Structure formats: structure tokens, C-alpha cells
Amino acid sequence: MAFAGQVVWTTGASSGIGAALARALAAQGAQLILSGRNEAALREVAAQCGNALVLPFEATDYAAAARAADQAWGWKGHVDMLVNNAGISQRSLAVDTAFPVYERIIAVDLLAPIALTQALLPRMAARKSGRIVMVSSIAGKVGSPMRTGYSAAKFGLFGYSDALRAEVAGLGIKVHVIAPGSIRTDVSRNAITADGSRRGTSDKAIENGLDPNVAAARMLDAIAAGEREIIMGEGMEREIGELRRTPDALHDRMAEVVAAGYAQKMDEGASE
């Protein structure tokens, strides 16, 4: 019951991993904020979770995200944990893929979670408390065929999160990145193809993947245990993720660099 009484804001909460996380958090007694595009679906999930605030918005409407951040923080006067889960996948070869597809994927999977995090970060820093969770992918550790844009965005989440973690380690803020493999959701059906249209069919690996409720429980256990990189897969997917795991010693070293005044020295150098 590590999250009992905590205010947890989850995006992409209308289905799949997001909905499973919401149910698991509700079972622990968390106070939930649920976001996504589909308000009706969000309200269905909220009805399963008890006391939840529904804040629908389009992830790439960054002005709306900023307004939602104000509402989310104002609901209970703080947010203990932000789970950036909303995203869209891809199934197309790079040689066939129109550039607007890349723009869409980067906007949804990378810029949107950064925008929402940035909207909450100063408030968490002032409070000296909070958790930021990014849902990346195994494809964010190893470039995956037919997912060039998706891999680029999900790799980007690791880069942003690693740098952010080092910066905020002394501010009481924890940063976690989850790298799921195949989980039984509609991620493949909802993936976009070379021309930006919805794929509409699933993959065998996804259909045979982890139950989202099992995955959600494991994710929360790992977050509560303080894991910074959470590899959520089985078999070869887990092996791939573990091979590319960043050692904790390296995360610690980067935090030490910041604690030793790296940012201040950079500012001093720039002013000379």
C-alpha cells in the first residue's frame, strides 16, 4: 500500500496500461487524476476507481496541458506522482513513412510528456517532493524495426529523464522510467502506419504479452522500491532491456556532478 493517500495523475488512463495502473492505485487507496482524450472512457475507468478527478485533454495541446496541470495541482493542493503514459506506436518502414508521421509521434510520445512534466516540476521542486514516471518502451532501449519514429521518441524519454533525475536528485524528486515489452493492450491496433492512418490490427507478440493488470502491479512495486529503470518484459524482450540498462552507479555519478555545483559553474563560465 505504498501509494495510499497519495495524489497520482496518470495520462493515457482510458485503456490499457493507464487504466490498469489506475485500478491498481485505487486498490491501494490513492487519490487519482485521470487524463486522456476520450472523456467517456475515462469516466468508465473512474467509476471503477472510486474518488477520481477526470481531466480530459489532447496530449499535444500544450496550452490545455498547462491548464490541466493547474487544475490537477489545485484539486488537493499537490500532486505526489505524475505518470506520463499516453502515447502512440508505429508500424511502418522508414523508407515508406511520410515525415508528418514522425512529427506526430514525436509530439505525442516525447514533447507531450515533457510539457506536462515541465508544468508540474517547479511546484514539485518548491514542495521538495514528488515522483515523475515516464512510460517508455523496450523500443526506447534498442531500435526496433518498423518503429523508427517510436524508438526515437522513446529513446528521448530516457535521455530527458536521466538528465532530469541528476538535476532534481537533491530536491526530493524521484524520476522513474518504465520500459514495457509486449503487454496485451490495443497499442498495435492504434499504431499509425506510413501515411498516418490507424493500423487496426494487432501483433501476435502483443496478443501473447503480459496481462496489463499483472504488469501494472509489477510497475508499482518497482516504483515503490525506488527502481530508476524498470524493465517490464519477459524472455528475449527482458534480456534486451537488461543488456541496455544504465547502471545505478552511473545515475549516482551524474547526480554527484550536479550536487558538486555543475550548473553553477556552467553559469559562471557563461558570464565570464
UniProtKB/TrEMBL annotation:
Signal peptide: none annotated. GO terms for cellular component: membrane. Residues 6-186 form the Ketoreductase domain. GO terms for molecular function: oxidoreductase activity. InterPro entries: KR_dom (IPR057326), NAD(P)-bd_dom_sf (IPR036291), Sc_DH/Rdtase_CS (IPR020904), SDR_fam (IPR002347). Keywords: Oxidoreductase. Belongs to the short-chain dehydrogenases/reductases (SDR) family. This is Short-subunit dehydrogenase. It comes from Novosphingobium taihuense.
